[in-house]
Amino acid sequence: MTASQSRRSFLKTGSAAIGGFAMTVVAGGALAQGKTKIRFSGFVESEEQLATTLKVLKAYEAKNPNVEIIPEFSSYRAFTDKLATEAAGGNAPDMFSVNVDLLAEYAARGVLTPLTKWIPDPLDVSNYQEGSVFSCTYDGEMYAMPNDAIATAIFFNPAKFEEVGVAVPDQFYTWEKLHETAVALGKEHGRGFWGIEDGGGNNLACDIFLRVGGKALFTPEHTIGFNGEDMAKWFQYWEDMRQAGGAPPADVQAQAGDNSASLGIVRGRSAMLVQTTDSFIGIGALMDGPLELMMLPNGFEGGEMKQHHYDYAGNSTGIWTKAENKDLCVDIIRFMHFDPEGVDLYYTGSGMIPASTAGLEKFGSTGTENEKKIVAYLRMLREEPAPSRRPGVGGLGGIFRRHNEAVAFGDMTPLEAGNSLTAEIDGKLKALKS
Amino acid sequence: MTIAETHQMTSDINQTTARSKARSKLITHGFLILFALVMLYPLVWLAVSSLKPSNIIFSDTSIIPRHFEWQNYAHGWAGVAAPFKVFFANSFVIATIAVIGNVLSCSFVAYAFARLDFSFKAPLFALMMMTIMLPMHASLIPQYILFNHLGWINTILPIVTPKFLAVEAFFVFLMIQFIRGIPRELDEAAAIDGAGPIRIYFSIILPLLTPALVTTAVFTFLWTYEDFLTPLIYLTSIENYTVPQGLRLLQASRGASTWGAMLAMSLLSLVPMFIVFFIFQRKLIDGIATTGLKG
Amino acid sequence: MSKTQNLSKKQNGVAFLFLSPWIVGFLVLTLGPMLGSLYLSFTDYDLFNAPTWAGLENYARLGDDPRYLASLKVTLYYVLFSVPLKLGFALFIALILNRGLRGLGFYRSVFYLPSLLGGSVAVALMWRQIFSYDGIINQFLWGWFGYDAPSWITNPDYALGTLVLLAAWQFGAPMVIFLAGLKQIPQDMYDAAAIDGARPVQQFFYVTVPLLTPIIFFNFVMQTIGAFQAFTPSYIISDGTGGPADSTLFYTLYLYEQAFTNFEMGYASAIAWVLVAIIGLATTVSFLSAKYWVHYGDEG
């Protein structure tokens, strides 16, 4: 269906409504006859990614004239609300994007189809980074195809270190060293500046913190991998950081919210930020000077490469359980991920780093300056990757932020927050399994 | 403006005499203009920010633009998935149909509640009020199931049909209050001349209801135009998106270059609303002047 | 509301003709989803699998849910402060604008502007620009008084306050309705009052205020219902998380979170129906009180 056809039907329904005999009008898309329609839904991670996604879908349509793909995109929040409503109403899109936590929720509740039947033919993931496959796996089966590879990192503004002569930590350093560095930056820059944005509300950073102590957020069996005391240590770490002036007080930190525009690092009031690499280009674009990447503390100094970082799929594409044309959906995924023409259209200029090793190599050498920095970072992690992030529960970020804020504003002690968070996540996991 | 000054204003207004009328008017204008500046600040901020390059929008807080990034407008207008004019056209069509629906249906229903006597009046009125007490997130899914069943997904029917069926109790109640403000002697005089309820509605009530009708038209337009959740759920394909949905396409979670375009289109999206408001609010004054309400 | 009409005979035929759009709309579009939601409030429903009967369990849970109780408190506070402030503002400005000033259209449009902006991202960014730690207000306080003020929008002690302020700032809708109401007051009434020797102040209290009471009542009831259901303001300062520290966790936001983030639609529906009861109670009280202070022109 072309845009003009669709517009006609759209307006036709409009004029029918004026006439008042609206009841007889059928859905707008019905005019495009004889084509198999696939609804492809997702969230906008970046304008570039949206553009290349639309491009690759158009290319698929050109090659398959009897297939019509209807792209349905919106912002993340809008997308999740819409998807939930549609799935509940029995009218979900045939295929849609998910992230790790949505994947677990939707797989456990039977909304996503396991892809096992189509692996390895035509979806051969043997060439894919283990972490990205793992993060698309739930209960032993793969439920989505990883679109990109991302990893947790500390973004830092080197200019803010140079200005006051504080050294950037070495490749391997301890959590104590991070504390010292952040506090020193805050002290040297004076009022209204803090070394690092408060990371206590960041569940990904916490996962790496836990791994230093031999634990993790979730076990491979999809159960909780920590206890209240572990979490109390985490909240205590950031409480000490705030008290010492290394991280902003609670009210200043809360300004950052979900919005990259409000981040301290963008506004020039902090030098470091814990984030995932898929935000690197977006945040970099809001800043005047260069932005760099480094690992979080691995809990030791110098020595061999035995770090606790891993990369995983930032977003991935899955298929609705009740989709009528699953094979066709799989073929669209195949085109985007394995057909050389599709891969080229989908990834070039998208800002996404492909999850396959070959893709990483290919796009690593052609990207922009900041894309190259991400590729270099991911390559380094892949030298000796830690076991990847495991699917957890939805809304994890919100739960962490809420508890970290409770500590920061003095409403809870770190131990209270640790216990409360543990109970809440445990409860959600159990609800998911029942 | 401090509270003390405000009090001063109030007493000025109250003690207006012929002698000090001019002075009082001047003070009123001074106050209003000052107040208008406070109200306008956000728009100025939005306009200035929409012309800044992305890398300094949020680090440079100055309200005086140094150079103009008109590219933000061109970029946003062209859009990635569909040109923005498509979203404007869709919003405009939907909002216009909604206005017609609400003005007609709500005034019908309001007339019955305000002027006619019928069985179960009080319980029906209570029921109508109850429909606006349930938060819309709670009935969203049952409603979706209903509209999906009717085959209305990806059409404007779920958005405009309710307007023809007086589903928005806000406007019904508004008109009830206005109709009840119209002296009953007018109806009674017409009734003596042999007019039935239908004629009274068209010849007496409707003309005198102009302020409420215009208010309903304005708010229906604005609130339908800027509504996000309903179009989000029911208009699925991008060519059918409305303006707020179009803005969400520019709201990338990890985006590199969309902030300027997003702010530019945010500002632009206000223009039709402002024009509609400005035109209609004139109508509000004219309407009164010509009907020449007599008590 | 039918007390003045008891004497006339019922006009069921013509009345139901006028009511027919609403009756059809109610039966076809509104009633089903409402009953559906009421039913769901007695079930365990995760959106994707069939609901299972849970009896009163969801309602029983409410009393032990600290976040629910917090959201109730936040919302009551918001209703209590934002409604009178917004209405007071709206009425005050409407009265000034109703004096036949030149440029009325301009002022009215400008004053409506903030309401046009609604809860958009632009407002969110701008609100931060003003009230944040490094915002305009604090730059002023630091620059002129050397006072290191907190971040007004993200300090739990003040965050809700700035949202009340935001509500007052967006007073456009009730203002327009007040103006329409003022326009409807017949000039004759003022003329008659003037002949009787009433001064402007007396005209205000004996003509304007009584004849405006139906509109004041309308705005009061509707703004109260709207404030109980406040949702978008929380996006202005917390991106819809209800933070900082749940200080702006509005009632409907918590409902939404339960329904769409936690997939607890049964519980969310119970939360919704308790709100219906609360709003219903508040509205009933308002209507009962109306007898004593609202004067309708049709009552003679």
From TrEMBL, chain A:
InterPro entries: Bact_solute-bd_prot1, SBP, TAT_signal. Its main location: periplasm. It is found in: Periplasm. GO terms for cellular component: periplasmic space. Belongs to the bacterial solute-binding protein 1 family. This is Extracellular solute-binding protein.
